[in-house]
């Protein structure tokens, strides 16, 4: 349990990772990559622009715990807000990005809106056409505290795993430094650090030995094998 939210208790081993329904109050590992393994981020200014669109389209419906943006793919750890939180956020932000609570939720639409908005900007700015992202984004339910802590490490470790940097701490476009820092952040930093028993535990966990077999049980192995630098 993180905060007052229980994890979804289901077996995700044999389920397709692009078809899980997003449910209010549940935690997920969200990920996607470029269509045909194309780069998503072509230059440095693309990264903060994507995050600004993420804030617009996803923050109204989800809390974010960790993220990492790499040239050709990304990972997020999120919790979909509850229906009451949707209503509260809607009143505060006065935004149309909040799903209608009287209708069946289509929470995936917010992610589609994010991808479409970013694609339009990249297509216009770089003279390209067509899809930029794979049609369906991956989403895996987070089912336990141990899954959650390992997932956060996995997300931060990803740039090193894929050879973008020699040390994942040197990668600029992840949440690692925001979580260990003291500056303002939109991340659920206190909840993350509490799960590791504080910042010292968080840093020590990230300094531990990498257990690739353990990581493989928590992620989409096919996605990882096909997403290479």
- Strand arrangement in the largest pleated sheet: 2-3-1-4
- State the domain count: 1
Number of helices: 9
Mean pLDDT, as a whole number? Answer: 84
Radius of gyration, in Å, reads 17 Å
CATH topology category name: Alpha-Beta Plaits
Give helix and strand order, one letter per element, not per position: EHEEHHEHHHHHH
Spatial separation of the terminal alpha carbons: 35 Å
Describe the structure.
By secondary structure, this protein is an alpha+beta fold. The protein has one domain: 2-Layer Sandwich (Alpha-Beta Plaits), CATH 3.30.70.1290. Helix content is 39%, strand content 12%. The chain contains 9 helices and 4 strands. Strands 2-3-1-4 form a 4-stranded antiparallel β-sheet. A hairpin with a 3-residue loop joins β2 and β3. α1 packs antiparallel against α3. The N and C termini lie far apart (35 Å). The mean pLDDT is 84.
């Amino acid at each position: 349990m993180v905060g007052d939210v229980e994890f979804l208790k289901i077996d995700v081993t044999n389920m397709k990772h692009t078809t899980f329904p997003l449910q209010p109050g549940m935690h997920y590992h969200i990920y996607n990559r470029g269509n045909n393994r194309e780069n998503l981020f072509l230059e440095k200014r693309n990264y903060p622009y994507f995050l600004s669109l993420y804030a617009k389209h996803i923050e109204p419906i989800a809390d974010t715990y960790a993220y990492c943006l790499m040239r050709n793919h990304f990972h997020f750890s999120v919790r979909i807000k509850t229906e009451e939180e949707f209503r509260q956020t809607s009143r505060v932000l006065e935004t149309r990005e909040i799903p209608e609570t009287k209708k069946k939720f289509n929470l995936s639409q917010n992610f589609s809106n994010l991808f479409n908005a970013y694609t339009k900007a990249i297509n216009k700015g770089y003279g390209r056409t067509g899809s930029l992202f794979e049609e369906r984004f991956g989403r895996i339910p987070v089912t336990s505290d141990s899954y959650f802590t390992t997932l956060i490490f996995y997300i931060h470790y990803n740039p090193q795993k894929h050879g973008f940097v020699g040390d994942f701490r040197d990668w600029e476009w992840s949440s690692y430094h925001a979580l260990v820092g003291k500056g303002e952040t939109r991340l659920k930093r206190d909840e993350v650090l509490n799960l590791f028993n504080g910042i010292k535990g968080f840093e020590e966990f990230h300094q531990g030995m990498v257990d690739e077999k353990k990581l493989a049980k928590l992620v989409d192995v096919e996605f990882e094998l096909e997403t290479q630098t």
